[in-house]
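USER:
Try writing one entry.

ASSISTANT:
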Amino acid sequence: MRGSGFYRLQLPQSSGGAAPADPRPGLTGLPTPVLIFRGSCDYLSWRSALDYRRLLPRAGLVYLDGAGAKRSAASSSIAGMATGCR
């Protein structure tokens, strides 16, 4: 199901406001390097990660075994390993 993330479904219900706009059309073709992290326990679908990977030509997709959707600040070391930055 497209657009089934927490903020897409929960935020409009909890705030009484309209659903947030889909950011993907504005990202199409963006030349900025991007890392997309996908955890094995993530509640978001693989399709959503692959959609972003397809839209962003300079994106990399990193699979994190045992990780979920909520990654702590300690995960910055994982990002550093993935990018070569320490």
Notes: Residues 33 and 58 are 5 Å apart (CA to CA). The mean pLDDT is 74. The chain has four helices and two strands.
